[in-house]
Amino acid sequence: MIAIKNKYYFFPLLLLPVWLVLYLTLQSITDLIIFDLINLPKDSHLTSAISFFIFEVPKVMLLLILIVFIVGIIRTYFSPERTRKMLGGKKLFVGNVSASLLGIVTPFCSCSAIPLFLGFVESGVPLGVTFSFLIAAPMINEVAVVLLFGLFGWKTAILYMSTGLIIAILSGFVIGKLKLEKFVEDWVYEIKAAHSEIEEVKPAFSERISSGFDAIKEIVGKVWVYIVIGIAVGAGIHGYVPENFMAGLMGKSALWSVPIAVILGVPMYSNAAGIIPIVQALLEKGASLGTVLAFMMSVIGLSLPETIILKKVLKLPLILTFVSLVAVGIIIVGYLFNIIY
Amino acid sequence: MISVKILGVGCSKCRALEGKVKDLISKHNLQAEVTKVEDIQEMMGYGIMMTPGLVINEKLKSSGNIPKEEQLLNWLKEN
Prior knowledge:
The complex is a heterodimer of chains A (341) and B (79). Chain A is built from 17 helices and no strands. Helix content of chain A is 72%, strand content 0%. Chain A has one domain. Chain B has a single domain, classed as Glutaredoxin, CATH 3.40.30.10. Chain B is globular, with a radius of gyration of 11 Å. At the A-B interface, helix 4 and helix 6 of A face helix 2, strand 4 and helix 3 of B.
């Protein structure tokens, strides 16, 4: 492998203060634009919606760019091959915990779910441990965490991450305990997967930095539209929907709202970036945190397309067990937070 | 004749890699045949865990990312 010289790897260090100044002055810039530049009247619905939009879009984008950059660099230290090596032969529970944690930092895309699943199972990673990885990897991703942090604050972001981890650990543990190996398609155990022959070269630090920039281009390039649309809809709700409008529908007293939120969330996919700003606005209007959290988890963590992809390697009983375990976990989390808050 | 295989089932990165490789080949007048492998069992034969995988003359070169142009060209030319 040739080292690709990148003269600009010191760039991010120069950009960081710029980032910080922008982030810290965002509120004043917004006020300046709203009240001085376009001179909107105070306390009108329109002003409230527009200032929400003008403030939130750059804020979320700034956060997203920073985190995606950092995660992009962290991911260069992890590869599925490495993760597989670390998980091989791990006992239940310890294996589930490590798999869930590794699920956060290992590069993962749901289109690679099958080769990854096969690669894990072939090399002796237990089925339950593999599932812990497959549940944590999509659910706890940097885009979701950034949006939660940016729009809901750090408490909600940490709650989301930790309860997501617990769901991944426990669901994988239960799948392991239930001994469901017989519900993996028979051919999976018959194929002899070669072990990847790519020699692992330690990339130079400048290459890791450039991976960070690549990640920004790839991920931010993909999700920014959803975020802008999501925040626009959120801004509309923020400005126009009356206070407590959602209390009856998605509030604490609406007991059925948690399971319904989960069921509605499953078919929604890849719009996590767009859904979170909308949901944030709903929260303001009286929806309860548990219901909202459950909805987001099922949108992000349980996706219909991924389940259909997994159908190629898993028989129906195992798929149903996996989906229902995760769904029940999410519902419990939802109720738990509705009770606590 | 260089044999190039792109392993992957229709993800956007797989298509991007295919396009990039084909562009390079025609730009540099290389004698190469590009095929797309979509059969999972065949893909697993090369030991990849992330798509797209790139196989040149039956040797796995990369998986899970789109290599840089200079890197791709190097691999194509060393054969």
